[in-house]
Amino acid sequence: MPVLLVVGAAGFIGRHVTDAARSLPGVRVLGAGRAGAPLAFAGAFEQDWRPIDLSRDPVDIAERFHELRPAVVVNCAGATYGSMSGLVAANVVATAHLLEGLERSGIGAHLVHVGSAAEYGSGLPGVPVSESAALRPVGAYGISKLCGTQLVTAEAGAGRIEAIVLRVFNALGPGMPEGSLVGSAVRRLGGALASKTDTIDMGPLDAVRDFVDVRDVADAIVRAASLPVFEAPIVNVGSGTGHAARDLVHAIARRLGFTGSIREGSDGSPRSSDVPWQVAEPSLARRILSWEPRYDFETTVEVIARAGAER
Question: What residues are annotated to the active site?
C-alpha cells in the first residue's frame, strides 16, 4: 500500500490535508512533526503518527524517510509568525533539510511543497496574480517562503527530485493562529461579547485578499499529491475573488452577534499595509489539478463563527 506522508500534520493546513488524504483509496496516510501526535491522530489513527524534526541533521531525516518509504511527501511544515531568524529556520533551513533528506534516502518520493502568496508581494490593484508575476515579497515571512520555494524548484529543475509547489493564498477556516487576522478578530469579538463591551479595536482593514477555504486548499494539495506527473513547477491555489479584510471581520462579527463598533487603528501587519491588493489568477490549478473551490466566502465565515462561538 503506497504511503502519503504529511510533514507538519499538526498545523492549520496540515490537519486538513491529513483529513482529506484519508479519503484516497488504497493509500496509507501518515502524519509527521516534531511535536507529539495531535488530536487528529487519536484513537484509530494513533499508529499513523511519526516524529520527524526538520531542524535535525538531514542524515537522520533520510533514515526516517528510508524507513517509511513514502511515495509522496507533502510539506506543510513552516512558520507564519516569529522573529527573522525563526522564520528562516522554519521556512528555509527546514526545507533544505527535508530536500537533503529525501535525496539521501534514495526513495524517489514525489514532493508537494506548500508555498505562500506572500512570495509575490505587492501587485497592481485589479490585476490577478499569475504564476509568472514578479516576485517582490515583503518582510521576512514572504522572503523566507520564497527562499524555500526556490530551493524546491532548483532541486526539481536539476532532476534530483520530482516536486511541485502550491502557492496558497489566504487560507481561511477555524483553528487559525491567534496572530492571524481571523484568530485575532475571533478572540477580540468573543471577549467583547463575554464582557458586554460594545467596541473592539483592530488594525487597518483596507487590504483586499483572496480568501480560500482551508478545506479547498487541502483538496488542491491532495489532488496534486495524486498526480503521476507534475506539469508545472508552481501552481496558485486561490479562489480568484477578492474581499477586503474589513468585509471578513464584519461578516464574522455579524455571525457571532456582535453589533458594536469595530475601530480600525493605524497599527497593523506590515504585510497588509505594504500589499494592499492580492488576488490569485487560478486557471492553472483548474487545468492541472482539475480543482475548483467548493466553499464560498459566506459558508467559510459561518464555519469560523460557529467554531468561535463554541470556544
Answer: 141
**CATH 3.40.50.720 location in the chain:** 3-172+212-239+280-293
109, 102 Cβ separation under 8 angstroms? yes
Category of 249 on φ-ψ map: left (φ > 0), alpha (ψ -120 to 50) or beta: alpha
**In angstroms, how far is CA 92 from the centroid of its own chain?**
15
- Quick one: 3-172+212-239+280-293 is in which CATH superfamily? NAD(P)-binding Rossmann-like Domain (3.40.50.720)
pLDDT of residue 123: 85
User: Can you tell me the distance from the alpha carbon of 278 to that of 272, in angstroms, rounded to the nearest whole number?
Assistant: 10
User: CB-based burial of residue 291 (10 Å sphere; 0-12 exposed, 13-18 middle, 19+ buried)?
Assistant: buried
CATH of domain 181-207+242-277+302-309: 3.90.25.10
pLDDT tens for residues 102-161?
999 999 999 999 999 999 998 899 999 999 999 999 999 999 999 999 999 999 999 999
Q: Where in the chain is the domain with CATH 3.90.25.10?
A: 181-207+242-277+302-309
Looking up cell 511541485 gives: 164
Q: Which residues of the chain have pLDDT under 50?
A: none
Q: Would the pTM count as exceeding 0.90?
A: yes
Give the pLDDT confidence score for residue 36 in this predicted structure.
81
